[in-house]
Amino acid sequence: MIRFTVKSLILMMMVASFMFSTNTYAGDEFFEKVDYRGAFGATDWASGWTALYHYGVLAEPTTGTNDVIVNDDDIQPGDVVYWTADNVYHLNGRVFVEEGAVLHIEAGTVIKGMPGQGENASALIVARGGKIYAEGTADRPIIFTAESDDVNNPVDISYDTKGLWGGVIILGKATINRPGGEYNIEGIPTTEPRGLYGGNDDDDNSGVFRYVSIRHGGAEIGEGNEINGLTMGGVGRGTVIEYVEVFANKDDGFEWFGGTVNAKHLIAAFCGDDGFDMDEAIAENCNSCLPFSIRNLAIAAQSTTALRNRR
Question: Percent helix, strand, coil in the chain (nearest 5)?
């Protein structure tokens, strides 16, 4: 009789899981596209009802406990990179998802921008031809915030604290209204060639950005030139942008520069400039988009008082 130890069984399961997860079945709708390797992602579908769970072989999902410093050269062209919720990722300056690279971010992951202004401002930039699959859930959102922000303590940073790091920038190959059809994106020095956006592919796909919260950003790179919470330059309609919040950004919450991407369920709260800003002949739809600020509250209060006084 062949006997297996618990450790050997776990190893066999990991190997089998990896073998099944690395195969691609093009055109087969039975297989679900996911942003993780193996049999399990943010949801442990074997939790509670299996013997493996009750014997402690399968662990509960964890929150980030390990700190990982991310530098610009960590994501190279052609790389496929996975960021998982058991780590906290610290952006050390501008980090580009290069052309041909794919970044997968697991639901529940926290990414923190290290402090810095000017060319030292931290930001995550998806270059033209790169892809990001940041697929959070309502219960386990993906959070981009400042390094000093304890996401488990809602009062450690004032709600209106802005400019502690940069933000998130997604660049694509869709049409923009610029001579030559491409331009350097706002928030990145013009000497950086990876900051170009625009093209002629209106169906361009930069990935999925869903259930994401971007907090306390908007660092300045120059006089009057801050990074928006989420900047989209020439992003194509093949990209999914939905359920995204920008909270307390020094400049705009969301800004589109041309492109054809459609977006829905967006919230811009307590931003220093516009909640939503659109430039360069954008051809997109924004469904259920809410700008929210102290100014909005003041206007609402004045309107309510005026109505009461008229009664």
Answer: 15, 30, 55
Q: What is the value of pTM for the model shown?
A: 0.75
Q: 72 φ, ψ to 5°?
A: -60, -35
Render the burial of 50-59: b for 16+ CB within 10 Å, e for the rest. eeeeeeeebe
Count Cβ atoms within 10 A of the Cβ of residue 263 and give its class: 0-12 exposed, 13-18 middle, 19 or more buried: buried
Task: Count Cβ atoms below 10 Å from residue 88 Cβ, excluding itself.
Answer: 19
Residue 262 forms beta bridges with which residues?
A: none
Contacts of 273 (CB under 8 A, 6+ apart): 250, 251, 252
Mention every residue, 6+ apart, whose C-beta is less than 8 A from residue 106: 35, 36, 41, 42, 82, 83, 84, 85, 142
Q: State the sign of the Cα–Cα–Cα–Cα dihedral 98, 99, 100, 103.
A: positive
What are 124-159's pLDDT values in tens digits? 999 999 999 999 999 899 999 999 999 988 888 988
The Cα–Cα gap between 168 and 244 comes to 12
Highest mean pLDDT of the ranges 26-35, 215-224, 283-292: 215-224
